[in-house]
Amino acid sequence: MKSTLRSRCARTLAAGALSAALLSAGAAGTFASAATDSAKPSPSVSATKAAGSITVKATPGSVKAGDKVTFTGRTKGMPIGSKLVLQHKQGSKWTTLHAGTTVKKGSSYTFDAKLNDKGKQELRVKADNGTSPTVTVTVK
């Protein structure tokens, strides 16, 4: 009976010592990785979207109010399916119009828009990570 009790005690002590050793090794690994990770900048701070580029062409360059204008162009650095919207300049602000499309296979796009405001309209195509140069359309 003494030997059974002694072996149970020895097993319990051995299991406890092994558990303590495993926990301390795991904790040391966690502290070591935390120490090395703190020297690196966090991904949310250093990660930014890469800027893409958009070209735009408006056809025709002069229309009557209410007529449609076709906008075509290509994108670079934007995945297929990226959303594109048409904007026009009002004073010093850019306003999004109810016209747009998505980037197609081959990084191209095309869409139509009706322009109602008379005068020279400054327009551009915008995506999340890029903006086209301005194109001017005269609306009579």
Quick synopsis:
By secondary structure, the protein is an alpha+beta fold.
Could you please describe the fold and organization of this structure?
By secondary structure, the protein is α+β, with helices and mostly antiparallel strands. The chain is 29% helix and 41% strand. It has two helices and ten strands; from the N terminus they run ααββββββββββ. The protein has helices at 2-37, 43-46; strands at 53-54, 57-59, 62-63, 68-76, 83-90, 93-102, 108-114, 119-127, 130-131, 135-139. The strands form two sheets. Strands 3, 5, 6, 8, 9 and 10 form a six-stranded mixed beta sheet that branches. Strands 1, 2, 4 and 7 form a four-stranded antiparallel beta sheet that branches. A hairpin with a 2-residue loop joins β5 and β6. The longest helix has 36 residues, at 2-37. It is rod-shaped and about 105 Å long. 14% of the residues are buried. Mean pLDDT is 79; it is low at 30-48.
